[in-house]
Amino acid sequence: MAKWLFWSLALVGTTTVSATVGATVALLVPLSQQMFQPQAWSLHDLWRNAFVYRLSRPINILVMGLDRVPDAEEDSPTRMNGRSDTMLLVRIDPKDYSVKMLSIPRDTRVDTPQLSIKKINQANVDGGPALAANIVRGVLNDVEIDRYVRVTTDAFRELVDLVGGVEVFVPQKMQYVDETQRLKIDLEQGWQVLNGEQAEQFARFRNDRKGDIGRVQRQQVLLKALRERLSSPTILPRLPGIVRVMQRYVDTNISLEEMLALANFGLKLDRADIKMVMLPGRFSGPKEYAASYWIMDKAGRDRIMHDYFGINSKDIASDAKPSDNSIRIAIQNASGQPALSDRVAEYLKNLGFRNIYLVKDWPQEERRTQIIVQQGDIKAAENLKSALGLGNIEAASIGDLESDLTLRVGKDWPDSVANY
């Protein structure tokens, strides 16, 4: 029951935090192409009928979490006309029972000769989900986009409050005022349970050197935290309230039957079946453009579209083994042992890894060593884990931005290696 509950809520509940993983019981109501409509189905009926439907092929869903539209009335369609603060392409594949999520930074630069759009987050404003899907398709090697989901920021805030908050580690003190979104951010460093307003603050903070990319990383952290919270059976009594929230704030063209099939698919998913990655790229330089952009790395894009979405590219060799010399590994000490990073770096060099650098210690001690797949290269992470003989692979772009892999060294690092 716990797994069903999480997967039944996660698609909409995490849209505004840069992630979504399947359709939801909260979404299992008759849909029009525009908004949710009132319905008479009971949750018992929805649960019973979910078993009838199955996914017959992989499906790609464009998910957008939207900025607030100033002065838009709560029930007005114009409230769905905001910029996409979050944009995800989610692939749900029944062939290998996997969910793969690509986060597209809102400041990603796009070239649209016949339009004035330069940042991808403007697409929904100018042409709604149809234009957004067309632009994403063009940016991502003509990937097929089957459906879309749009959710306003208010949905996430209310959902977090309804589930009793989410527990996350805030890595630094966060203070910032976002006048355009009427958001005052004020969070202390450390572990804490965030309410809906605080979770939005955590997700939207961008007053540091990482800017929009830091948002993407924190949104992926929130996804994991929300997943843990929704896995609790104590959430079941709150389900009717969650349904009402989703009805007010969600717009999608996914049919009822498709949602039932997605909910059924979610029953068989485990945590290891989910992979998250961010569109590779770099920040634009001050002399390149008047505005700040995320400049996509086309080679990295091609590899992710091949590995995650099954789109072939003549420049990608699917069976190529990553070179130990070419993989850029950031070492981050989270063990509580001073200067351990230097010894770990020396150990890796003796194993044949050459492209290594150290980053600032992680402020929170971690029990287990993590191999964070920053650029989506799962093969490289598996290669490193095999060489080390330890490490949990974290398929999410929450490591150092310049790395291919971030090795976050935990308290389980062997003493024999620590004294190397």
UniProtKB/TrEMBL annotation:
Show where the Cell envelope-related transcriptional attenuator domain sits: 83-231
- Name-wise, this protein is LCP family protein
All copies of the LytR/CpsA/Psr regulator C-terminal domain together span: 326-413
Q: Its family?
A: Belongs to the LytR/CpsA/Psr (LCP) family.
Q: Which domain of life is it from?
A: Bacteria
InterPro entries linked: LytR/CpsA/Psr_C, LytR/CpsA/Psr_CW_biosynth, LytR_CpsA_psr
List the Pfam families.
LytR_C, LytR_cpsA_psr
This protein's species is Aerosakkonema funiforme FACHB-1375
The signal peptide, as residue positions, is none
Q: Which residues fall in a coiled-coil region?
A: none
